[in-house]
Write a structure and sequence with these properties.
Number of strands: 17
Strand order of the largest sheet: 4-3-5-7-6
Oligomer: single chain
Number of helices: 29
Structural class: alpha+beta
Distance between the termini: 88 Å
Largest sheet: 5 strands, mixed
Length: 859
């Protein structure tokens, strides 16, 4: 970049920065202001480092991916300096103006830095391919937007941002709970949240709006970073293929949420960590001071964004070093170059990691630390569930182990290709080695499943596909050519489905847009606006978990508990908060229980949310229409204790009057779904010592139905003794025998049935899961002298085959990410198989050929 261009770019950025500070952009749309703030605070300062010589192979277009990382590192360093020196980081929106001016002054003073030797640029066709992929990613993320509902991570992050903007604290501990203290420190939220807060403040928008748009601004740079890896592995064609492979495979493809939530610290940290890895690989090729320093800066940016990047680096660079040692059978030049570069990165990251470890790392939240997401092989031997592979990569994960022999045989002399092999192999050995899992699970918990994100699948495909094509076209032994052709054909088949999904998303995004809007917190915009206008900012709100999760996000008010796993890993009271909320709002609990919870947490406001209806169930307790009606009637019956402040289209807000609450002494209403134990409710001997309640009765109506009908079911449960707190689910399964002539061995029952279902285009099994009694009466509260009736409905899917079905019911106590057994993937009697309690005769759909034939026979 010439001095004139540097001066023009720097002055333009500073001018826009000053205009935003002065409020001159108020007339611009919010997304435009967010884009400008993102540009002047992060992207353009990052480009100054590129202008100073920190450039990757591939040319200026790929350098934009590094520029984003440099900008995050620059802004993070300034934010940490402000955190050290002053009580609030918010004045940084002003202070960064002279800091950025000084940075661009250095660029202008240095003048033009020549492009380093050994760093050719992409040809025009490859640039167009990469930019088209980046454009598709940005358009998809922008047109659909990230998930924002109460079943996502968004309220967690936006609620933290709102608290940061209210207090100026870089690492707040009270984002949700006024009494959190040290337990509110969250190691998952790094300096990237400070940067987002600065962008939000400079753009003068609501945190939800900046969160809504930042992902679409960031994701094209992810494409450029992946293209840079593909370029190092396979040249221009590798860059183009890796860019497009990212869209088809990351998180399962464009249909999934992952590419639309790149503003999340976890995903953005992975993106920056990959940029740092690319810088290290580029340094092994170019051996220049600029690439080594770039690796250190990008490594700091990744760790400052999310500390999990430190684990990322420890795994992939240790594996790469071992791979280089095995390849060269000595300490070769690549390893001698790698070690100092990685040590420089570690030195750049270590102070921040130590600081955050002292602030936040003390995982005591049982919802996080209990074993979950594991697969039992046999006995006590466990690995990470293989479902994590499908979740992250879709069916294309099969290509990773198939690529290993090719990567070693054909590509190991290129350090970038060797990285593809060693990183994916290391992840596989960690996640699927029982002794390693047993060692790491108590320390990392469910983060073990996050290791799958370290596998550079897009880079593997960018190298593998042209390699296989070249092998097929080359002369040589027919067996090798045939093997390459088989793997290439398999790759095409496995990528066809995500390609179709991507085309569907691009041509018809409305279903995804509608799904996002359905749970968008702005559906409750009038409620949150009323709360902001009429409730003091230090109020503590007691509400159902879904609404409680949205309250800090939209108003900044404190709550008692939030949904499931979104509380800090350090919050040892997370499960207790959830259960306290459930019991305080239980229409059938005594007033003393509510008084205890209100007094312990300082509750001043209760919100009953009737708009949720019978929404998707949460794990520990979920609101329902019947709960809402009963609890509203309960509070309305005591106006002296609960002053109704507003009724906003079904959302009712009450002010708690402690004196009135103290006077309430009426006994609770009897639970309509609970009766005393009778002689007919005796437990079987094997149930008396069981760890779960036993079934003592079952009813199903009707017993003859058709696809599309709704079944009414009731299960009578009896607990053999006190049940521990936790997440309980009832699985109700309907099983039909296989058609005559189809009798596979038991250990192949499930895959055989699935193949048969695909051939018949009909399902031979369906299942429905729900919380016992809708979650309104926690299983941990059940007494042995009670029988609890669990009434629920099941919709019969329309693609189920007619026939006689056995009804099986089982109660399961499961963590957030369920644990399975290897046998569950092969045997039909799997994790969800319960006790046979009844039968259902499913008739052919009305109007079908089978139904007409059955009517003819009857006549």
């Amino acid at each position: 970049m010439t001095r004139a261009r540097a001066l023009a770019l720097g002055l333009a950025s500073l001018a826009f920065h000053a205009a935003l500070l002065a409020g001159a952009g108020a007339a611009l749309p919010g997304p435009v202001r967010v884009a400008l703030a993102f540009g002047v605070l992060v992207l353009v300062p990052g480009w100054a480092f590129v202008a100073l010589g920190a450039r990757p192979p591939g040319g200026s277009w790929l350098a934009a991916g590094w520029a984003l990382g440099f900008g995050v590192a620059w802004a993070s360093a300034l934010a940490l300096l402000a955190h050290t020196l002053v009580p609030s980081f918010l004045p940084l929106t002003l202070w960064m103006l002279p800091a950025n001016a000084a940075l661009w002054g250095v660029v202008v003073w240095r003048g033009r830095v020549p492009w380093p030797d050994g760093a050719p640029t992409l040809p025009r066709w490859a640039v167009l391919a990469v930019l088209l992929a980046a454009g598709v990613a940005a358009w998809t993320a922008g047109s659909i937007g990230p998930p924002t509902g109460y079943g996502t991570d968004t309220p967690d992050h936006v609620g933290t941002l709102r608290r940061m903007l209210l207090t100026g604290q870089a690492f707040p501990t009270d984002a949700f709970f006024r009494d959190a203290g040290r337990m509110g420190a969250d190691p998952r939220k790094g300096v990237w949240h400070v940067v987002i807060a600065l962008i939000t403040r400079l753009a003068a928008v609501d945190p939800l709006e900046s969160w809504r748009w930042l992902g679409s601004f960031i994701v094209p740079f992810f494409v450029l970073t992946v293209a840079g890896l593909g370029y190092l592995c396979r040249g221009p064609i590798g860059a183009g293929l890796a860019a497009w492979a990212l869209l088809l495979t990351f998180g399962g493809g464009l249909w999934s949420e992952e590419l639309r939530q790149m503003a999340f610290a976890s995903h953005f940290g992975d993106q920056l960590a990959l940029a740092a890895v690319v810088a290290v690989l580029a340094d092994l090729r170019m051996r220049a001071r600029g690439t080594r320093v770039s690796a250190a800066i990008l490594g700091f940016a990744a760790v400052a964004t999310h500390v999990f990047a430190a684990v990322h680096f420890a795994v992939v660079f240790s594996a790469l070093a071992l791979g280089l040692l095995l390849r060269d059978r000595r300490v070769g030049p690549d390893l001698r170059r790698l070690v100092p570069t990685v040590l420089l990165m570690a030195a750049a990251c270590l102070p921040y990691v130590v600081m955050r470890a002292g602030q936040a790392y003390a995982p005591t939240n049982i919802i996080h630390t209990e074993p979950q997401g594991l697969l039992t092989l046999v006995g006590t031997l466990r690995v990470v569930t293989i479902g994590a592979l499908w979740t992250h990569m879709g069916e294309a994960w099969v290509l990773v182990p198939l690529a290993w022999p090719w990567l070693w045989a054909r590509g190991r002399h290129n350090p970038a290709v060797l990285y593809l092999l060693t990183s994916s192999l290391a992840v596989g050995l960690i996640m699927y080695d029982p002794p390693v899992v047993a060692l790491l699970q108590p320390r990392l918990g469910y983060l073990l499943m996050r290791l799958i994100w370290l596998v550079p699948l897009a880079g593997i495909l960018g190298w593998l596909l042209p390699e296989l094509a070249a092998r097929v076209a080359a002369t040589g032994p027919w067996a090798r050519r045939a093997a390459a052709g088989v793997v290439l054909a398999l790759a095409v088949v496995l990528l066809a489905a995500p390609a179709r999904d991507a085309a569907t998303v691009l041509l018809a995004p409305e279903p995804l847009q509608q799904a996002r809007r359905e749970y968008d917190p702005r559906r409750w915009g009038d409620v949150f606006a009323w709360m902001n206008a009429h409730l003091p900012p230090d109020d503590v709100v007691l509400s159902d978990l879904a609404t409680s999760y949205m309250v800090p996000m939209m108003t900044g008010r404190y709550v008692v508990a939030i949904v499931d796993q979104h509380s800090s890993p350090n919050d040892s009271l997370a499960l207790r908060r959830i259960l306290d909320t459930r019991d305080a709002l239980d229409p059938y609990e005594p007033w003393a229980r509510m008084r205890d919870v209100i007094g312990r947490y300082g509750v001043s406001v209760i919100v009953l949310d009737g708009r949720l209806g019978d929404a998707a169930p949460l794990l520990y307790w979920t609101p329902t229409r019947s709960w809402y009606a009963a609890e509203r009637a309960r509070l309305d019956s005591a106006p002296g204790a609960f002053e109704r402040l507003a009724d906003l289209r079904g959302v009712v807000v009450y002010r708690v009057r402690p004196r009135g609450l103290d006077r309430l002494a009426s006994p609770p209403a009897p639970r309509p779904f609970v009766r005393p134990v009778t002689a007919g409710d005796a437990l079987a001997p094997e149930s008396r010592s069981a760890a779960l309640p036993a079934i003592v009765g079952f009813a199903l109506r009707p017993e003859r139905a058709r696809p599309g009908d709704t079944l009414r079911c009731a299960v009578d449960w009896r607990a053999p003794g006190p049940m521990p707190p936790g997440s309980y689910t009832v699985a109700v399964r309907f099983d039909r025998p296989l058609p005559a002539g189809w009798s596979p061995p038991a250990f192949l029952g499930k895959p055989w049935r699935k193949l048969l279902e695909r051939r018949l285009h009909e399902r031979l099994r369906f299942r429905d899961d729900h919380l016992p009694v809708g979650g309104i009466y926690g299983v941990d509260l059940w007494r042995p002298d009670q029988v609890v009736r669990d009434e629920f409905s099941v919709a019969v899917p329309r693609d189920v085959a007619p026939g006689e079905y056995v009804v099986r019911v089982r109660m399961i106590r499961s963590p957030v990410f369920a644990n399975f057994r290897l046998s569950d993937y092969f045997f039909d009697q799997d994790y969800f198989a319960g006790r046979a309690v009844g039968s259902l005769r499913l008739l052919a759909p009305r109007g079908s050929v089978a139904a007409a034939e059955a009517a003819r026979v009857r006549d």
